[in-house]
Amino acid sequence: MKEKIFIVEDDPAMRLGMTHFLKSHGYDITACENGIEALNIIESETFDIAIFDLKLPGVDGLKLLQAMKKKAPNTAVIIITAFAEIKTAVQAIKEGAFDYIAKPFSNEELLLIIERCSKFRRLELEVEYLRKSVKEKEIFEGLIGISNAMREIFDKIRVIAKTDVPVLIQGDSGTGKELIADAIQRLSTRKDSPYIKINCVAIPETLFESELFGYEKGAFTGATETKKGKLEIANGGTIFFDEIGDMPLSLQAKLLRVIEDGIVYRLGGKEPIVVNLRFIYASCKNIKELIKAEKFREDLFYRINVVPITIPPLKERREDIPVLIEHFLEYFAQKYNKSKIQISPSAYEALLSYDYPGNVRELKHAIERGVILSKEGILDLKHLPEEISALSTIELNCINNNISLKECLENFEKNIIIRTLKECDGKKIEAAKKLGISRKALWEKIKAYKIEE
Ligand SMILES: Nc1ncnc2c1ncn2[C@@H]1O[C@H](COP(=O)(O)OP(=O)(O)OP(=O)(O)O)[C@@H](O)[C@H]1O
Ligand SMILES: [Mg+2]
Q1: Ligand 2 centre from 27 Cα, in Å?
Q2: I need a labelling partner for 451 at 20 to 30 A (CA). Which of 223, 333, 399, 440 fits?
Q3: How is residue 312 annotated by DSSP?
Q4: Which residue has the higher pLDDT, 402 or 165?
Q5: What are phi and psi for residue 446, nearest 5 degrees?
Q6: Mind listing the domains of the chain with CATH numbers?
Q7: Atom of ligand 1 nearest to the CA of 282
């Protein structure tokens, strides 16, 4: 079937002539004679192409064009004009009409413009489809990634989201653990039920138990009324324990019991409360090591580690860096109302070669800052944080021959030391080990390069 076309023309001879001619060429035609009726049809039907006469009784062609662009922006509109109305026709094009055709015109001229319009539309739809499918492949529930590691994680999420199995998400800080927990919740059958997040680092040990289990009035001094705990509030939904590795040992035993029995007792309460929960956990600490250090219960670990998801650090999946850059660039340009921003080659090079100890979060912040500081649509090396731009600045300086090789190497060494110290939170013993030099050597270099604490 050829395109579906909507004709609005008040001159009966023209309307009938066009309808007859286009039908004989296989088009599916709907025709009407006045603007008000046309508005109703626009609201209730969809078309590939619309042909509006400019002068109509009631509502004119320009108004119909506006209504069509609002209701069905993908419908291509052709405007029929008399010679004297060319100015208005130009206005119509500005407002999104595909083209105009001036009276009087032959059937062949009409066919030509419709065929051109059909071809253009098909191309346009194809481009939109391709663009969409590329984007969909890169974005999964707000998560960007094209590396094999991320694709495997997306597949795993698709499979497990619909089940109730416990998930343990592990990965360094800023790798997207919370984003993954959110994706699992959103794709699950519990998406409209409570979703409670508990950050095990943020709650002081003394308050933790009452936060989780709630308490009865009079359970302890200060318990002036009965309060539900997070486990009870999350009943029927999902509970996310973030940084589970930091949960105090005493509470780990109590959590284990809830997982095994599905029963909660409020502090000071005797009534068992049955809870139905889906558990998601995240940790940036290696839990196996915590078990060795006797900071985490082994029996709890087996209970939470049913489906492990491990996100590699960004530097181990570098293919994701360009797509993340692209995504954040577009996102922040829009957020800060900046028109299209281009990254200069040196800035791009620096962004691609950096190691991102802070992972995606660090990349995201770097782009945000870069977008804010960018000038005249260019994000340059100088708009990036020093730790990202440092190494390539040195290389550029060397290439520019402004400084001697010795000076270059010294700068290089200084920057490596600063970066390593930062990565080790200023701990010199650790930094020296990482750099493969003695503590004394490191100390001397810090002094020589006047590196501040
Ligand atoms: N794959 C990704 N795609 C898009 N944004 C991401 C991705 N991974 C992380 N982010 C973004 O990076 C930031 C950090 O993510 P998130 O808070 O989920 O990390 P985390 O692993 O929980 O970190 P932490 O251990 O510090 O809590 C967020 O702003 C998040 O939107
Ligand atoms: Mg987190």
Answers
A1: 57
A2: 399
A3: P
A4: 165
A5: -60, -40
A6: 4-135 (3.40.50.2300), 161-312 (3.40.50.300), 316-384 (1.10.8.60), 403-453 (1.10.10.60)
A7: 22
CB-based contacts of 372, cutoff 8 Å, min separation 6: 332, 336
Q: In 10-138, at which residue ranges do the beta strands (DSSP E only) sit?
A: 28-32, 49-53, 76-81, 99-102
pLDDT digits (tens, 9 = 90+) for 250-287: 999 999 999 999 999 999 999 999 999 999 999 999 99
Adjacency order of strands within the sheet including 238-242: 195-199, 238-242, 278-283, 167-171, 307-311
**The pLDDT of residue 400:** 60
| Type of residue found at 369 | R
Phi-psi region of 169 (alpha: psi -120 to 50; beta: other; left: phi over 0): beta
- Residues 6+ positions from 385 with CB-CB distance below 8 Å: 365, 366, 369
Angle in degrees, 0-180, between the axes of helices 345-353 and 386-399, rounded to the nearest 10? 120
Alpha helices in 336-404 (DSSP H): 345-353, 359-373, 386-399
Residue 204 contacts residue 342 (beta carbons within 8 Å): no
pTM greater than 0.70: no
Judged against a pLDDT cut of 80, whether residue 393 lies above it is answered with no
Between CA 50 and CA 32 the distance in angstroms is 11
Q: Cβ–Cβ contacts within 10 Å for residue 378, how many?
A: 12
For residue 169, which ligand has an atom nearest its CA? 1
Q: Ligand 2 being an ion, which residues bring their Cβ within 5 A of it? A: 177-178
Closest atom of ligand 1 relative to the 327 alpha carbon:
4
Amino acid identity, residue 284? Answer: C
Query: Which is the closest atom of ligand 1 to the Cα of 175?
Result: 21
Please report which confidence band the pLDDT of residue 93 belongs to, taking 50, 70 and 90 as the band edges. confident
What pLDDT shows up at residue 91?
87
Residue 184 has pLDDT above 80, yes or no: yes
* Dist CA 200 CA 212 (whole Å): 11
Per-residue pLDDT tens over the stretch 99-128: 999 988 999 999 999 999 988 888 877 777
Distance 127 CA to ligand 2 centre (A): 37
Q: What element of type H or E holds 160? A: helix 148-161
Ligand nearest to the CA of 283: 1
pLDDT digits (tens, 9 = 90+) for 204-225: 888 999 999 999 999 888 899 9
The closest of 323, 410, 403, 423 to 364, measured between CA atoms, is 323
Is residue 447 classed as helix, strand or coil in its secondary structure? helix
